[in-house]
């Protein structure tokens, strides 16, 4: 050992830790320290520096431990063996004077050694050494516990050490043998501990076979009792003799036990009575001990219940084993929390304990006792458990009771438990308490709404410690509203469903008088309305289920409950109040009255009167007196919106009942539509109500058209009236009143009367257009799109020829407003007017100021406030008109008639000329809306019309799409890709330049929105392809088994809208649309610095790329039978040559081959090399792994019976699969033209060389391991090809490859849904990584 190096270390550390060291000297000192870490002899210096006997200060000793840690982390095997004894000697001789950071680092390094060496022949006696250390002193016992705790955290929590993944199976066996007593191991695992692995061999689609691999469990001599059992026994002994001084060791014991509670097999936990033994600690007179013991019990209670004999293990060891000792101790501990001041040193700790106990009880109910698949009550005597649950649910502390209330809701819903006598006897007390508590919660919530500052616990009636659990009053109100109140109402609904007539009869005497009390508190009325809503909606759902089951006895109960509810309904509707909160709640209750107003009941006079009263109540709130802008006006508008929502809800629930009184109803609605005091937005929603009623009513198409005409015709007429103004941008500018504004600015302070009249007229026109488009959008949304709401498609089809041209022209005019070329031709009189007006209209500037919290920069000099208000009104109107126009156009594209040349000739040209006019000057905000509201709905719906079958898609829909999409879809690909690329490049320059932070922030926000909208479009298109090109696992199965394939395969990707007709058109189009799509998707991966967008596109590509591999390989082989040839041809013919290249004679397989190897792989490598895309790199690796895997899978499973077309023999380099994999390797950076798979072991493996070129030196070991796993099938398959593929030579193949490659290890291989990233435990990385 070089003493000069030691001295340099001491000098360097002194410079590093000194506050007076100059920056340059500090940098040089840190560089020297880093060089020493990377030195091959770093561990030797580390041991010397870390040894306390050598007299170095703690900081130097800590650095010595860092050197050792770095050497071990780099897996220098010779260092690991050499330093173990030295490190153990350091550990053995530590004492309480040792600084905590030294002890923690020492334990962390020991755990690193354990992970690498134990259990194996290199370290067979770890438990014996730790038991020897345990008997030395309390300090050593704490060290032993820290070692086990850190090992458990590294294994099951943090996953920071890559070697944990590599040796997980071996370590798992070692921990099982160390923790559990030998008798328990012998009883539970007589054949060894069985680890689940994926089975080899062929598997069919839809899942893979699994096998259980039994592994012997090592038990060291002297450790027959098991560490876990000894820990619990030691904890009990310390708790029994608790004196305060032994509290730290007791807490450390419980913490270590808790580390393994989420992992130890549940059968072992029950065999050792772990829950019961931990529950004994709850009597310890220490707050922290009880809290930690409860935490360990809570971990056990939420363990998975398993299947078969293990299904009820967790529940039984709490509530039945040893006369329910654990449950008894929980109940005793909970009782102490009710008087926290005398039983607990800290009342807040008592609250925390009560919450944990409630959580344990909730877990036992929801996860075990009342789970859906339970068919019997496994608790023979559940009285103690039920009493604890009832006490918890009645706890005055809402944070405690809410979890128990949730448990009761689950019990009530359970078919078996709710009928158990011991359970049913508790319902009476539960229901009374629930109803009372609901009123209390509403009272507290109302009081909190009026509190300013810190709430007083005494005033609002909430535990003071509980209030401190919430940072703000708003959070407390949200908790009471969303959690407590929701669970109380769930219990009320459950009790009503159990006994409808009995429950309604019980609650009516206390509920009905509430609505006749004029002085009743607001909270009481609000709670009563909630209960009424819950009862009526529950009875409605219950009636539907009973009708489906044809249960006459239950129908009788429902009918008796209905008769009781008529009186209640009349009182609710007749209740009048000026409190807007109660009015809002009352209106929210009215849709549930559908239960009382079914068509079959409308012959009843009471039902008819009640229906008319409900309608009058709703319509009466649509009109309100004029008030000044402010909170009151906002609340009144909200009330009107609640009223229209109630009307729409009734129209959807009981349309035929409403049609019985349609004459009276239409008169009431017409009066409100004609009333000038009714807001325009309210009138739009009234039109929605009318069309929703027409759509749901039982009538003929002709009747629907007649009933819808009074709603639709005014919309058509208004747009027709304004058509002339949409013909040119100049005419639209005059329609908006911009020339009048210009004149007003030019006149300075004096505005002529005719100019004022023109301004007023323009304002009226804008408002009328806004109202018309709003009504159109709302009505289309309600009656055209959505499941089951296409009833009025035939109605809207009659008006397509009038609506579509007007909206297309309007969109063109809107886009022109943001084109500077159009502004310059307007002949402005006032430069001030032009600058001020378009300073507001320019969306980019307005959005910047909005995002940064500023106001539009408008010059307020010269023309006064009137013109300023007018300018802002124009800005608001244009934004609203644009949004509604986009949405209306997108929804109209759901109509088949939109592509009917007889009704809309030249739609493709008009769509392109209007929608994409002036788009080059649009800011990203416009593009986000355009893509989201127009392009995506169009691509989702065109060709995807109701009644279109697979046969009609090929015969009709594809031809129709060919006349519409090619005119604008390829240019859209080119423009968005090019513009987004330029914007992201400019974004990087903006971030590195001298631009303002606000500008960069706003520009990035707008750019991300556009990028995400574009990624949605690409994902939708790629998802549509997946309907015709299924996942590779399905295709591989079909090709290898000569399966008859269906026309389409359903795809269900979250957030992706797939269109079957669109998918076939893209695949069959001669316009290279598929090539444009694939190129656009990969280019987004290259330039977009947005994780959401990249992940979305990667997910869509991952569905297709592996299947493309099979489409490349299948045509290059000769199928063994005509049936195999038919299957392969059926898949290959899905893609037309013209969709990928100009030269249609080019084979599709060659084009896909080029895309995979020359475009996809480099794009994935770009993601892997981009530090910004670190969150997407695992997904990119998974795609790369799938591409390689399915090439290998084809070679192993299909090729043995198929002959390569380009080779007569077993020419390895001529094999198509081998050639494809070599191309992938070259694309990943391999320098040689060929890769030699027969290198000697001491030489650098080619795959390691590729991995080194792809991943940087500082990349995480986990991603390096993943990349090598992704590349491994190349090595394994190539080496195995020198042998046959028969099962008899399996051992020889494994010997040749040196690895065992599982069949199913990628995220989609062979029909599994597991991810390579998430399921490392399913295969042994130690055997896979070269």
UniProtKB/TrEMBL annotation:
Entry superkingdom: Eukaryota
Pfam short name (any one): Exportin-5
Species, as recorded: Coemansia asiatica
MF terms in GO: nuclear export signal receptor activity; RNA binding
Cited PANTHER family: EXPORTIN 1/5, EXPORTIN-5
Cellular component annotations (GO), alphabetically ordered: cytoplasm; nucleus; RNA nuclear export complex
Protein name per UniProt: Karyopherin
Residue stretches making up the Exportin-5 C-terminal domain: 355-1100
Membrane-spanning parts: none
InterPro entries, sorted: ARM-like, ARM-type_fold, Exportin-1/Importin-b-like, Exportin-5_C, XPO1/5
Gene Ontology biological process terms from the UniProt entry: protein export from nucleus; RNA export from nucleus
Recorded name of the encoding gene: MSN5
Ranges of residues in domain Exportin-1/Importin-beta-like: 101-174
């Amino acid at each position: 050992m070089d003493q000069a190096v030691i001295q340099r270390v001491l000098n360097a550390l002194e410079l590093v830790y000194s506050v007076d060291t100059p920056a340059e000297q500090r940098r040089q000192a840190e560089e020297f320290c880093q060089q020493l870490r990377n030195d091959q002899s770093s561990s030797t210096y580390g041991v010397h520096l870390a040894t306390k006997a050598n007299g170095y200060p703690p900081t130097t000793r800590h650095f010595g431990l860092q050197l050792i840690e770095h050497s071990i982390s780099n897996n220098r095997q010779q260092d690991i063996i050499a330093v173990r004894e030295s490190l153990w000697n350091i550990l053995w001789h530590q004492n309480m004077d040792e600084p905590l950071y030294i002890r923690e680092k020492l334990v962390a390094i020991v755990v690193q050694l354990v992970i690498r060496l134990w259990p194996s022949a290199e370290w067979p006696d770890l438990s014996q050494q730790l038991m020897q250390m345990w008997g030395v002193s309390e300090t050593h016992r704490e060290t032993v516990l820290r070692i086990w705790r850190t090992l458990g955290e590294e294994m099951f929590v943090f996953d920071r050490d890559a070697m944990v993944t590599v040796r997980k199976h071996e370590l798992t066996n070692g921990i099982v043998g160390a923790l559990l007593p030998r008798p328990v191991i012998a009883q539970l695992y007589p054949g060894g501990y069985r680890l689940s692995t994926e089975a080899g061999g062929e598997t069919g689609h839809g899942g893979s076979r699994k096998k259980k691999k039994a592994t012997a469990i090592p038990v060291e001599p002297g450790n027959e009792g098991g560490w876990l059992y000894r820990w619990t026994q030691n904890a009990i002994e310390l708790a029994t003799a608790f004196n305060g001084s032994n509290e730290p060791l007791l807490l450390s014991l419980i913490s270590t036990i808790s580390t393994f509670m989420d992992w130890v097999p549940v059968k072992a936990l029950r065999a050792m009575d772990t829950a019961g033994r931990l529950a004994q600690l709850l009597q310890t007179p220490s707050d922290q001990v009880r809290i930690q013991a409860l935490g360990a019990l809570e971990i056990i209670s939420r363990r998975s219940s398993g299947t078969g004999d293990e299904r009820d293990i967790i529940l039984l060891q709490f509530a039945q084993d040893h006369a329910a000792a654990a449950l008894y101790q929980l109940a005793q501990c909970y009782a102490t929390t009710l008087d926290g001041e005398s039983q607990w040193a800290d009342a807040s700790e008592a609250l925390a304990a009560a919450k944990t106990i409630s959580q344990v009880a909730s877990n036992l109910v929801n996860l075990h006792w009342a789970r859906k698949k339970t068919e019997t009550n496994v608790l023979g005597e559940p009285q103690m458990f039920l009493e604890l649950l009832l006490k918890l649910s009645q706890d005055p502390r809402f944070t405690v009771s809410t979890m128990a209330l949730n448990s009761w809701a689950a019990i009530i819903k359970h078919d078996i438990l709710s009928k158990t006598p011991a359970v049913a006897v508790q319902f009476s007390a539960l229901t009374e308490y629930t109803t009372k508590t609901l009123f209390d919660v509403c009272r507290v919530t109302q009081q909190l709404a009026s509190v300013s500052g810190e709430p007083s616990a005494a005033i609002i009636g909430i535990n003071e410690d509980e209030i401190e659990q919430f940072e703000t009053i708003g959070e407390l109100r949200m908790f009471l509203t969303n959690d407590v109140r929701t669970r109380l109402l769930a219990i009320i609904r459950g009790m009503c469903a159990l006994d409808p007539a009995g429950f309604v009869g019980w609650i009516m005497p206390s509920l009905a008088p509430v609505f006749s009390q004029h002085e009743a508190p607001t909270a009481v009325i609000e709670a009563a309305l909630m209960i009424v809503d819950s009862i009526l909606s529950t009875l409605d759902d219950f009636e539907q289920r009973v009708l489906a089951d044809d249960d006459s006895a239950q129908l009788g109960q429902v009918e008796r409950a209905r008769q009781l509810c008529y009186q209640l309904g009349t009182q609710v509707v007749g209740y009048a109040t000026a409190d807007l909160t109660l009015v809002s709640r009352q209106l929210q209750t009215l849709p549930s009255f559908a239960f009382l107003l079914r068509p079959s009941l409308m012959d009843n006079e009471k039902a008819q009167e009640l229906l008319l009263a409900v309608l009058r109540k709703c319509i009466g709130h649509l009109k309100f007196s004029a008030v000044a802008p402010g909170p009151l006006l906002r609340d009144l508008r909200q009330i009107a919106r609640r009223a229209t929502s109630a009307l729409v809800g009734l129209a959807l629930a009981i349309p035929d009942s409403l049609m019985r009184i349609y004459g009276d109803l239409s008169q009431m609605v017409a009066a409100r539509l004609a009333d000038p005091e009714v807001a325009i937005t309210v009138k739009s929603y009234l039109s929605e109500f009318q069309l929703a009623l027409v759509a749901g009513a039982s009538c003929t198409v002709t009747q629907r058209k007649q009933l819808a005409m009074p709603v639709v015709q005014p919309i058509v007429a208004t747009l027709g009236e304004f058509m002339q103004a949409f013909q040119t941008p100049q005419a639209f500018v005059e329609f908006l009143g911009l020339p009048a504004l210009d004149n007003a600015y030019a006149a300075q302070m004096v505005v002529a009367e005719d100019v004022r009249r023109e301004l007023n007229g323009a304002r009226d026109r804008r408002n009328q257009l806004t109202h018309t488009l709003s009504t159109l959008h709302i009505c289309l949304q309600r009656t055209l799109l959505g499941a089951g709401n296409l009833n009025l498609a035939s109605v809207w089809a009659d008006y397509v020829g009038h609506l579509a041209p007007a909206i297309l022209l309007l969109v063109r005019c809107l886009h022109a407003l943001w084109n500077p070329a159009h502004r310059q031709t307007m002949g402005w009189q006032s430069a001030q007017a032009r600058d001020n007006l378009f300073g507001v209209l320019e969306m980019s500037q307005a959005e910047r100021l909005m995002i940064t919290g500023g106001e539009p920069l408008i010059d307020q000099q010269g023309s006064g406030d009137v013109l300023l208000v007018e300018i802002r009104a124009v800005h608001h109107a244009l934004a609203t008109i644009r949004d509604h126009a986009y949405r209306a156009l997108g929804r109209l594209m759901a109509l088949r008639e939109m592509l009917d040349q007889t009704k809309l000739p030249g739609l493709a040209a008009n769509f392109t000329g209007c929608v994409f006019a002036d788009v080059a000057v649009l800011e990203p905000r416009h593009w986000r809306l355009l893509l989201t509201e127009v392009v995506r709905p169009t691509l989702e719906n065109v060709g995807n019309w109701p009644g279109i079958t697979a046969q009609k898609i090929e015969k009709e829909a594809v031809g129709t799409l060919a006349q519409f999409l090619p005119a604008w879809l390829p240019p859209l690909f080119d423009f968005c890709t090019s513009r987004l690329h330029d914007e992201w490049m400019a974004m990087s320059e903006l971030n590195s330049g001298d631009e303002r932070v606000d500008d960069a922030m706003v520009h990035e926000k707008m750019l991300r929105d556009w990028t995400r909208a574009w990624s949605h479009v690409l994902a939708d298109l790629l998802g549509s392809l997946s309907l015709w090109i299924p996942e590779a696992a399905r295709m591989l199965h079909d090709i290898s088994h000569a399966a008859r394939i269906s026309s389409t395969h359903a795809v269900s990707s979250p957030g992706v809208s797939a269109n079957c007709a669109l998918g076939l058109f893209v695949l069959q189009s001669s316009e290279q649309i598929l090539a444009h799509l694939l190129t656009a998707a990969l280019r987004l991966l290259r330039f977009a610095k947005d994780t959401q967008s990249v992940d979305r596109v990667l997910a869509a590509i991952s569905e297709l790329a592996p299947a493309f591999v099979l489409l490349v390989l299948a045509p290059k082989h000769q199928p063994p039978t005509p049936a195999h040839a038919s299957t392969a041809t059926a898949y290959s013919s899905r893609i037309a040559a013209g969709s990928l290249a100009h030269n249609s004679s080019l084979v599709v397989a060659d084009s896909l081959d080029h895309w995979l190897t020359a475009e996809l792989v480099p794009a994935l490598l770009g993601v892997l090399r981009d530090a910004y895309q670190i969150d997407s790199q695992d997904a990119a690796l998974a795609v790369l792994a799938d591409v390689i895997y399915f090439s290998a899978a084809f070679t192993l499973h299909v090729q043995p019976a198929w002959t390569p077309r380009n080779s007569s023999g077993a020419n390895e380099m001529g094999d198509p699969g081998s050639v494809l994999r070599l191309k992938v390797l070259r694309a990943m950076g391999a320098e040689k033209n060929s890769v030699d798979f027969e290198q000697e072991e001491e030489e650098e493996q080619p795959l390691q060389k590729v991995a080194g070129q792809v991943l940087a030196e500082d990349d995480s070991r986990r991603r390096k391991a993943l990349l090598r796993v992704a590349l491994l099938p190349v090595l394994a398959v190539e080496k195995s090809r020198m042998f046959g593929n028969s099962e008899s030579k399996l051992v020889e193949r494994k010997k040749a490859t040196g690895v065992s490659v599982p069949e199913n290890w990628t995220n989609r291989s062979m029909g599994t849904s597991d991810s390579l990233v998430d399921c490392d435990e399913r295969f042994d990385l130690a055997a896979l990584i070269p």
